[in-house]
Amino acid sequence: MEKKIAANEQLFRDYPVWKSIAMLAVPSLLSILVMIFYNMADTFFIAQLGIQQSNRRKPYAVLLSVY
Question: Whole domain around residue 22: which residue ranges?
Answer without folding.
Answer: 2-66
